[in-house]
Amino acid sequence: MGQRVIDPNDLPYADGDFYAFESLLSEAERARLLDVRDWLAKEVRPIAVDCWNRAEFPMEIIPKLADLDMVSPVHRQGYSNLFAGLMHAEFTRADTSIATFMGVHDGLFTGSIEALASKEQQDAWLPDIYAMKKIGAFGLTEPLGGSDVAGGTRTTAQRDGDNWILNGAKRWIGNATFSDWVVIYARDVADDQVKGFLVDTSTPGYSATKIENKISLRTVQNADITLANLVVSDDFHLKGANSFRDTNKVLKVTRLGVAWQAVGQQLAAFDVARRYAVERHQFGKPLASFQLVQDQLVQILGNAVASMGMMVRLAQMEDDGQAKDEHSALAKAFTTARMRESVALGRGILGGNGIVADYEMAKIFADAEAIYSYEGTHEINSLVTGRAITGLAAFV
Ligand SMILES: Cc1cc2nc3c(=O)[nH]c(=O)nc-3n(C[C@H](O)[C@H](O)[C@H](O)COP(=O)(O)OP(=O)(O)OC[C@H]3O[C@@H](n4cnc5c(N)ncnc54)[C@H](O)[C@@H]3O)c2cc1C
Q: Residue 16's pLDDT is what?
């Protein structure tokens, strides 16, 4: 008997949702997720590799994303955290860079305004932010302050009458080469506390230079920012951003988003590797017919499903107000470790073509490295969890 021929366009479990987690969504949420999945397949996936190769952000996608109306799904639109998480995974599955653009504008930037600005400030700023008429960035990391930025913020803020004077440098700031606004976290020289400010990027004293030659998230425009005697009115000091404890309120939520990205990244690896394994023949048979290849595909799927299961429960805890910092930290550490294994397996399944971006897998493989390191590295998130389970801080 010959092997049955599998049509790669007709594979079972095409949504990657092996344990039907999406059935936990409301009907309206599920319909919306399917709409966005179609939209991403039409608008994002076809352009993703080319943008990545050229290391250019497709600015024409911004009005389309604005029409999609996906900024602040939980806070503004009343969707569940599970919906928001699955949506972020879905964006990542289509392209990690576009998902990261949204993660920065929506999660880090809009999240800062929603969590830390006064009601008056929110009323003034959020309508344009939600409509994506103003694009935002989030400036916390510095050239000399990464993992230790909480206690090591060197950028300073000095009160001067009704204004503040900002001086310093920021590194890695996503979207900042073209964003209209950036939230800058700076240390108040008077009380030594980290405060947040909404900075208009056209203000004199602000400059942003693109970080070139990245091997990961090439489409995302990350910048080195310099702030030289930049004057910002006290009206733009986020009234609830007065210590790093406040900044952490934003990071706790966005860390969850990154763990969802690790889910999406593994689904992408599964999609691409499985399709390739069915289409590509060696020894007169599809790669997918070999037992070792099936085992590798199953390992990717198992990793993705385990990560998703953890995230689904965490989304429920977030809805119920039970999720703590350490829950986000373990999720980020665990899912990104599984992700690294999954994308490496996927890359191997494509053989030599696995290192050529045109086949998508090389992009998926390389983009996983940024997910592993940003929003608190794997190690730092392990240590946050370690502190919670031992009562001992291994870092200060
Ligand atoms: C693509 C990309 C996009 C980003 N976007 C943004 C953004 O938009 N805004 C923003 O503010 N930041 C952004 N970041 C910064 C990101 O959050 C930092 O890179 C991250 O926090 C790690 O800091 P670092 O790179 O300085 O590494 P370092 O802190 O120098 O760490 C280097 C290594 O040492 C390890 N290490 C450090 N301390 C310890 C310890 N105590 N114990 C054990 N190991 C330790 C780390 O885990 C890591 O492996 C981005 C980064 C990347 C790569």
A: 84
Which pLDDT tens digit goes with each residue over 340-389? 999 999 999 999 999 999 999 999 999 999 999 999 999 999 999 999 99
pTM over the 0.90 mark: yes
Regarding the beta carbon of 217 and ligand 1, being less than 6 Å apart is answered yes
Long-range own/partner contacts, residues 386-390 (CB < 8 A, 24 or more apart): 387/326, 388/324, 388/325, 388/326, 388/329, 389/326
- Locate all alpha helices (DSSP H) within the chain, ordered by sequence: 27-43, 45-54, 61-68, 81-94, 96-102, 111-116, 119-130, 149-152, 244-279, 291-319, 325-349, 361-373, 378-390
Spacing, Cα 240 to ligand 1 middle (Å):
25
C-beta of 372 in contact with ligand 1 (< 6 A): no
Architecture of domain 8-130: Orthogonal Bundle (1.10)
Nearest to 38 by CA among 101, 116, 94, 112: 94
What is the rounded distance in angstroms from the CA atom of residue 388 to the CA atom of residue 206?
39
Q: Is there an atom of ligand 1 within 6 Å of 194 CB?
A: no
Domains of the chain by residue range: 8-130, 136-243, 245-390
The closest residue, in CA terms, to atom 19 on ligand 1 is 374
CATH tag, 136-243: 2.40.110.10
Q: Which of 209, 202, 190 is nearest to 232 (CA)?
A: 202
- Give every CB contact of residue 214 below 8 A, 6+ residues apart in sequence: 55, 222
CATH number for the segment(s) 245-390: 1.20.140.10
